[in-house]
Amino acid sequence: MRLTILGCSGSVPGPGEPASGYLLEADGFLLGVEFGNGVFAELQTRHDPFDLGALLLSHLHPDHCADFTALTVLRRYHPAPPYDPAARRLPVHAPANAPVRLAMAYAPNETELAGTDLSDVYEFHALTADPVKIGPFEVTAVPVSHPTEAFGLRVRHAGRTLAYTGDTGPCDALTELVRDADVLLAEASWTDAADRPPGVHLSGRQAGELARDAGVSRLLITHVAPWSDRDAIRAEATAAFPGAALVERGAVYDV
Fold first, then answer.
1. pTM above the 0.90 mark?
2. Dist. CA 195–CA 198, nearest whole Å
C-alpha cells in the first residue's frame, strides 16, 4: 500500500501546511484518513475527490475533520458529478457521534440543522473494536487516550501493516496497536517535559520509545504543531529510534 501525506500540521494548520490528512492507496482504491483544515484543497492537486472510496476519521477535533464540510458541499452541489453521490454514498468510518457532530459543523443555524441529515451522500459506520474491511484494507480501531473519543488505527494489506496512533497520550493500548508494524505513523506534538498534560499527545521521546519497544520497522512522525520545535522533536525520536523521520506535505511512502 502507498501512503501520501496531504497534511501533517498538528492542532492547527501552519503556514502553507494543512492539518492532518493522509491517503492510503492499494488495488486502485483510495482511502482517506483524516480530513483536517486545508486537506480538501491538497487532495484536489492529486485526485478528483469523487474518487475517494471511503473516509476514515480517528476522532472529531477540527484539525482532523474540518474540511468534511467542504467535501459535503462538493458531494451535494457539484453540477456535473461523475456519478450520483446519493446513489453511491461515501462510506465514512468514524466515532459514533460523527453524523451529529459533522452535521453541526455543516449547518449554519438551528433551523437548518433541524433538517440536515448527511446520510443523503454519506454512509456512516461507527468505529468499534471489531476489524472491518474497507476496500482492500483490513482496519482495526483501538480506543486511545485523548480528551474526546479517539482511536488509533491498524491497517493491513497484502501482508503489510501500517499503524497510526491518531492523537493520544501514552496508554497501554498503543503497544499492541503498533506491535511489529512495518510502518508506524505516530503523532508527536511537542518535546518531552514533566509538565505536559496527560492523555493528550505524545512527545518525540515517547513516540521513539513506543516504536522501539513495539518492534516497529519504520517510524514516521506527524502532527507537529506549528509552534513546536521540529528539530528537537526529531532529535528526541531518533535518540530512541534511529532513523525516525518527520513527514512533510506531499511525501509518499510505500508501506
1. yes
2. 9
Please say whether the beta carbons of 191 and 171 come within 8 A: no
Give the DSSP H or E segment for 90: strand 90-94
CA distance 174 to 121: 34
Cβ atoms of residues 60 and 23 within 8 Å: no
Tell me the per-residue pLDDT of 196-221, one tens digit each, with 9 for 90 and over: 999 999 999 999 999 999 999 999 99
How far is it, in rounded angstroms, from Cα 164 to Cα 66? 19
Dihedral angle sign, alpha carbons of residues 159, 1, 240, 213: negative
Residues, the chain, total? Answer: 255
Check the CA dihedral 155-156-157-159 and report its sign.
Answer: positive
The DSSP result for 129-185, as a single string, is SS-EEETTEEEEEEE-BSSSS-EEEEEEETTEEEEE--S-BS-HHHHHHHTT-SEEE
pLDDT score, position 115: 87
- How far apart CA 58 and CA 149 sit, in angstroms, is 9
Q: What's the rounded Cα separation, in Å, for the pair 6 and 40?
A: 9
Task: Say how many CA atoms lie within 13 Å of 101 toward its Cβ.
Answer: 18
